[in-house]
Amino acid sequence: MAIAEHADVLKSAHALFVGDADVDAAKGTIKFNRGRFGKVILKKGEGRALQSVGSPMVLALNVISGENATTGYTNAHLANSVFGSLVGGTDIVTLASQVRACSHDQLKFGPLADKMSSNATLVGDIFNGVATVYSTAVSGPGALRNDATSKLSTAHGKRGGADHVMVCLPDASLGFSPYAYINHWLSVYPHGACPKSGIQIHEIGHNLGLGHSGEGSNAYGDRSGFMGFAGEKSNYSPVLAKSVLAGPKNWQLGWFTDA
Ligand SMILES: [Zn+2]
């Protein structure tokens, strides 16, 4: 195991500058030991908790708080924003469409299969990859998140059976940024962020084990892919689909190992 200071990892004409990381060439891993994001382990092509090829199933939770605050979006709107034509929607720039194009059809996110709820007072039926959560928590993104995932477990089983769960929270005043767990199934979105494809891709990218693009303190400085600046749909065009994730991220996901 080597300790790398300011290591340059060159691939596909992209450079990754690392302040403090362990590089294990035999295993193909890069472990970042500190930084703004805590510990992040990158590993080439294998070893992730979640699949980066194939057809993982996504469930978005449309959370209504205990005081009846809503996201302001219908389930149909959220489904359209995440899956587009896969659920009969008209949105052509979605998590599903952009990642599929970027991966050259190797990673195809789709909606979790429709399923009746066993307790519709907690979580409604799953339809087109979206379900409504009737939370009893009233405030605090952590409390709402925990209540939503707990009620999902009760009504539909653990994670609802999905590979990725997107928790869409109500109330613009919560004041937090979208976030996701690395090598995990959960991503969490404040009011307004959930339908934005750039943010969806960024957060689900964390689920797949990706860290941020950029250098030093400017962790979001790389705007060539969505692991840097997570653009909003308004400044993003489907023409750019193939650069959704910048070169090193494609390599890390094992999509283009010969690139
Ligand atoms: Zn991030």
UniProtKB/TrEMBL annotation:
Alphabetical list of InterPro entries matching this protein: Peptidase_M11
Highest taxon in the source lineage: Eukaryota
Domain Peptidase M11 gametolysin: 70-230
SUPFAM superfamilies: Metalloproteases ('zincins'), catalytic domain
One Pfam family per UniProt: Peptidase_M11
Protein name listed in UniProt: Peptidase M11 gametolysin domain-containing protein
Organism: Thalassiosira oceanica
Taxonomic placement: Eukaryota, Sar, Stramenopiles, Ochrophyta, Bacillariophyta
